[in-house]
């Protein structure tokens, strides 16, 4: 839990860039255009109110737009041009930051990190057998 808390509450991004949670929402919408808030909450295994808060910030920033649609099933979501731009900028900054942090690492160390991250990403804890919550590969 400490790792999750640290990732979620880490340093605030530079002005005009999305938070970690907003970045996650923007990335999901980019990969799943037309998705609805309920789909995002199911994919990440979080309460819909959590997603709504993040979406409100993204809509207010002009990064996400809600398309017309029946309110009962939620509005289809899409990135605006500004949303695509801010997501691309945030991705570039994160890649640059990682590159800077591992700049002095050996190729073997970088390969070890990549292997361990892959292991972390693809492993499933023994107690986490409920694949219906937060196990969406689109997330």
UniProtKB/TrEMBL annotation:
<keyword id="KW-0238">DNA-binding</keyword>
<feature type="domain" description="HTH marR-type">
    <location>
        <begin position="10"/>
        <end position="110"/>
    </location>
</feature>
<dbReference type="InterPro" id="IPR000835">
    <property type="entry name" value="HTH_MarR-typ"/>
</dbReference>
<dbReference type="GO" id="GO:0003677">
    <property type="term" value="F:DNA binding"/>
</dbReference>
<dbReference type="Pfam" id="PF12802">
    <property type="entry name" value="MarR_2"/>
</dbReference>
<dbReference type="InterPro" id="IPR036388">
    <property type="entry name" value="WH-like_DNA-bd_sf"/>
</dbReference>
<dbReference type="GO" id="GO:0003700">
    <property type="term" value="F:DNA-binding transcription factor activity"/>
</dbReference>
<dbReference type="GO" id="GO:0006950">
    <property type="term" value="P:response to stress"/>
</dbReference>
<protein>
    <submittedName>
        <fullName>DNA-binding transcriptional regulator, MarR family</fullName>
    </submittedName>
</protein>
<dbReference type="InterPro" id="IPR039422">
    <property type="entry name" value="MarR/SlyA-like"/>
</dbReference>
<feature type="region of interest" description="Disordered">
    <location>
        <begin position="67"/>
        <end position="101"/>
    </location>
</feature>
<dbReference type="InterPro" id="IPR036390">
    <property type="entry name" value="WH_DNA-bd_sf"/>
</dbReference>
<feature type="compositionally biased region" description="Basic and acidic residues">
    <location>
        <begin position="86"/>
        <end position="101"/>
    </location>
</feature>
